[in-house]
Design a protein that fits this description.
With 82 residues, the chain is of the alpha+beta class. The protein has a domain of 53 residues. The protein is built from two helices and four strands, in the order βαββαβ. Strand 2 and strand 3 form a beta hairpin. The radius of gyration is 20 Å and the shape is elongated. The model has no long low-confidence stretch (mean pLDDT 79).
């Protein structure tokens, strides 16, 4: 994720071009996805040096075991309505 002011086209355009060159996928306005972690970290460093802000999140999958019950802390099970 990155944040570049809309008026700052001198930084925003090169960042968007670099993300396209990395074959990154735009998920939202300033949120992009890519499997090239090292290249994203380099781009992030350049952005910060030029006055932008950025954050790189690493995707991780967690296995779900069907033998274990799914914990739902938001569930109202056990409560009765009055």
């Amino acid at each position: 994720m990155y944040d570049v002011k809309r008026a700052d086209t001198s930084l925003r355009q090169p960042v968007n071009r670099a993300l396209h060159n990395l074959n990154a996928h735009r998920l939202q306005h300033s949120v992009w996805g890519s499997d090239l972690l090292e290249e994203l970290l380099e781009l992030t460093f350049e952005m910060v040096l030029n006055g932008g802000t950025a954050m790189v999140l690493e995707k991780r999958s967690l296995p779900i075991r069907p033998t274990e019950p799914i914990q739902r802390p938001w569930s109202r099970s056990g409560r009765t309505r009055t």
